Amino acid sequence: MHLRHRDINMTAGTTHLPDSTNGDPRVLPLTKPVLDKIRRFGRPASPDYLLFGRPAYPDRPFHFQNPWLKALADAHIEEFRFHDLRHTCASYLAQNGGGLHDIANVLGHRQLDVTRRYAHERRRKKTTPRRSAAPQAVSNAERPCRSVPLLA
Questions:
Q1: pTM assigned to the model
Q2: Which H helix or E strand runs over 28?
Q3: Which 3 state secondary structure label does DSSP give 26?
Q4: Burial level of 115, CB count in 10 A (0-12/13-18/19+)?
Q5: Is the separation of the CB atoms in 3 and 51 below 8 Å?
Q6: Rounded Cα gap, residues 8 and 28, in angstroms
Q7: What share of the chain is helix, strand, coil (3-state, %, to 5)?
């Protein structure tokens, strides 16, 4: 959560991650709702301030553990980790027609096998026609973690 204001290009609608989890720098697209929220933050006093900095100390990261746990409790969601949102992101992209390479790029995966697991993609028989991009039913034993259901 060390994203700085200088890393966001509001005109291009992207953010630059100079040092991602796998060590590679990446540029990620930002959706219009995300850009709108960032605009609501207003201009920081310094582009070096963290996007999610503490109100009194904008160069120090905000600790969101307590608000996260409260949000989960308020929503009656159990056994859900912040990391599970990566699986949710991959599932939503897959459900909306995103290809494995696109999903791998967004998540920063180098191996498509990892992306398949995150997107909960299952191998289908060659004789089975693909009816839709909707996810296939997966038993809890096959699923490494939960995804949040898509809200209508």
A1: 0.60
A2: strand 26-29
A3: strand
A4: buried
A5: yes
A6: 10
A7: 35, 10, 60
CB atoms within 10 A of CB 49: 17
Cα–Cα distance for residue pair 97/100, rounded to 1 Å: 9
- Do 15 and 8 form a contact (C-beta atoms < 8 A)? yes
For 112-152, how does the pLDDT look when each residue is reduced to its tens digit (9 = 90+)?
888 888 777 654 333 344 444 434 333 333 344 444 444 43
CA 49, CA 6: separation in Å to the nearest integer? 8
pLDDT in tens, 45-77: 899 999 888 888 888 988 888 999 999 999 999
Is there a contact between 15 and 2 (Cβ–Cβ < 8 Å)? Answer: no
Enumerate residues 6+ apart whose C-beta is below 8 A from 56. Answer: none
Compute the C-alpha angle 83/65/49, nearest 5°.
90
Which residue type sits at 62?
A: F
What is the SS3 assignment for 127? coil
Beta bridge partner(s), residue 14: 9, 29
The tokens for 85 are: 């949102």
